[in-house]
Specification:
47% strand, four-stranded antiparallel sheet, three-stranded antiparallel sheet
Length: 102
């Protein structure tokens, strides 16, 4: 088995490729990112300032890669590797001055 040069990056999968004895490619050591997205309810938001405050607090949490806030719907969508637990998101929403709901 010989390692080829380069890495494969596909949808969060990365791994070195190696040639098997029959010439087919096989994955070597891998690193799989656990990217997930979850939605939460947030009450009390009424404007873009509110959205920025919630976005900023949740964005500080470890692993968070994206925060989308929909003021009209009262929801926040959090993407992360992985998304922090409910308690951490709740604390961030409350720190921003709003009410958290699952």
């Amino acid at each position: 088995m010989s390692i080829t040069s380069g890495w494969v990056w596909v949808l969060g999968y990365s791994g070195a490729l190696a040639d098997d004895a029959d010439g087919s490619a096989v994955a070597g050591r891998t690193s799989i990112a656990t990217v997930e997205t979850r939605s939460f309810g947030v009450a009390g938001m009424s404007c873009e300032h509110c959205a920025r405050a919630v976005r900023a607090e949740i964005g500080k949490l470890p692993g968070v890669t994206e925060v989308d806030v929909d003021v009209a719907a009262g929801t926040v969508r959090v993407t992360g590797e992985p998304v922090p637990d409910d308690a951490a998101v709740r604390d961030a929403v409350q720190e921003a001055g709003y009410e958290f709901a699952l």
